[in-house]
Design a protein that fits this description.
The complex is a heterodimer of chains A (about 350) and B (about 80).
Chain A (H helix, E strand, L loop, with lengths): L37 E4 L1 H7 L6 H15 L5 E6 L4 H15 L5 E7 L2 H7 L6 E7 L2 H7 L4 H18 L3 E7 L6 H15 L9 E6 L16 H9 L8 E5 L6 H10 L4 E5 L10 E2 H10 L13 H10 L24 H6 L12
Parallel strand pairs in A: 1-2, 1-8, 2-3, 3-4, 4-5, 5-6, 6-7, 7-8, 8-9
Helix pairs in contact in A: 2-3, 4-6, 6-7
Chain B lengths: L6 H4 L13 H13 L8 H15 L8 H4 L9
Classes of the chains: A alpha/beta (about 350), B mainly alpha (about 80).
């Protein structure tokens, strides 16, 4: 008899535990992974930008749901807000009050890297702000004429200085970096770090790696600017730590999840996106799915986010006329309603509820 | 039944079965058991009758899944 023809079934219980999410099955996590990995939220910014207009009440409902989802797990640490409309500013201020009273998600702001915009946030009390700094020549050579790269760097740096002077930590959103020249990226990162070196460590700049058009690829052998492993390695080589980096991808070509996991694997500690994947065009990184896999890697052993809470977010989006797709993972209408693959054996023997992956007759 | 993990326990969603032309009689048994909290045999007359009605629907060209509300009358009066 062949050795594989065993007498008892092998359910790979180590990887598919009866309780808990599926595990990677590593004996230990590979060393390239950051010690801690977490997420930051952009429903109030990129979500709205992507056609999810929110009034103040809705913004706060979402903020509260995200806080309940994250709880004490530290899974979502920050959420960014627009400051241009009264409704958004009111939502930001109310979220600040909630955070001061113990809500787990820190509200931050989002502006363009211009002196004019920094003036809007100088007195809002945010500890950190995103600064949109488009970095590819597709943007730089069209937005900044004449001058191109040098003019862009000059304008961004003025905004960085002003942000630092206001006591705010700048988070540079390197827009369209997956179509950008790494030499210019490196040069700009160095200029920002130099500019910030005179300020307290709590204002050390962060850099958001924006795969603006979803063109990134997750594989190690893909050249710059599209290959995420080479991109993260290049940024780390400038002296940036895993927690100085955030990855902000879009899903235009369907690789958003793979790109996020690749970014983490190569030393990026923060993934920015939205719960349930709302966002421009094909959406932002679906944070609940990224967290699902981070849990599978062994992160969040001390306390997980409460995945049940996001049913309420899905219901809220449906009520707003912005439902998630029926086929959306975990929370879509059909996510747990198979039409095939159902066996009488399972319904009879396990009370109609099996915790194991079963196969059709 | 496809369930990659304890879906009710972790996500807070029930496991459901979508009744389509391919669900088979076992899918119907699952739905009846879940809805009525009672055991049903694959050969019970109520199951067979409901299943025949379902198949007729699909034979006549129906393309959408069948909802429980459409077949619950086969299982006797509903307690309110």
């Amino acid at each position: 008899m062949h050795a594989s023809l065993c007498e008892s079934p092998n359910y790979f219980a180590h990887q598919f535990p009866k309780e808990g999410f599926p595990r990677y099955g590593w004996s230990s996590r590979p060393e390239s992974f950051p010690a801690d990995v977490w997420t930051t939220e952009t429903t109030h910014r990129d979500g709205q930008q992507g056609g999810l207009p929110l009034n103040t009440e809705q913004s706060l409902q979402i903020y509260d749901l995200l806080c309940r989802f994250s709880g004490r797990s530290g899974a979502i640490r920050q959420a960014e807000f627009f400051v241009y409309r009264k409704q958004d500013l009111d939502a930001f201020r109310a979220a600040q009050e909630r955070h001061a009273k113990g809500a787990p998600i820190e509200p931050t702001t989002w502006i363009r890297a211009t002196v004019k915009d920094v003036k809007l946030i100088q007195s809002l009390g945010a500890r950190e702000s995103g600064l949109l700094a488009s970095i590819s020549d597709y943007h730089v050579f069209h937005k900044f004429q004449p001058g191109g790269r040098s003019r862009a760097a000059e304008i961004y740096l003025d905004a960085v200085s002003m942000t630092l002077d206001a006591g705010i930590r700048p988070r540079l959103h390197l827009e369209d970096i997956t179509r950008a020249d790494i030499d210019f990226v490196r040069y700009f990162v160095q200029l920002v770090l130099e500019r910030a070196s005179r300020y307290p460590h709590s204002q050390r700049p962060k850099f958001r790696i924006c795969d603006t058009l979803g063109l990134a690829l997750p594989d190690e052998d893909v050249p710059l600017p599209r290959g995420i492993p080479k991109l993260i390695n290049a940024l780390r080589a400038t002296g940036l730590e895993p927690t100085d980096l955030e990855f902000h991808p879009h899903n235009d070509t369907g690789l958003i999840g793979a790109n996020c996991l690749s970014a983490v694997r190569h030393g990026c500690a923060v993934i920015n996106g939205t719960c349930l994947g709302k966002g421009e065009r094909t959406g932002n990184a679906p944070l609940e799915l990224i967290l699902f896999h981070l849990i599978g890697m062994g992160y969040y052993e001390q306390g997980r986010p409460d995945f049940k809470v996001l049913n309420e977010l899905a219901a809220m989006y449906a009520e707003m006329g912005q439902p998630i797709a029926d086929k959306y993972p975990l929370y879509g209408r059909d996510a747990h309603a198979p039409a095939l693959g159902f066996t009488q054996t399972v319904s009879t023997n396990s009370g109609g509820c099996t915790l194991r992956l079963m196969f059709p007759d | 039944m496809y369930a990659p993990f304890d879906v009710p326990g972790l996500i807070g969603r029930p496991l459901e079965v979508s009744l389509t032309k391919d669900s088979g009689i076992a899918g119907l048994v699952f739905v009846a058991r879940q809805r009525l909290q009672k055991d049903f045999d694959k050969n019970s007359p109520m199951i067979e009758e409901a299943h025949r009605w379902m198949l007729r629907q699909f034979d006549e060209g129906r393309q959408t899944a069948i909802e429980w509300e459409e077949i619950q009358t086969f299982f006797g009066p509903t307690e309110v």
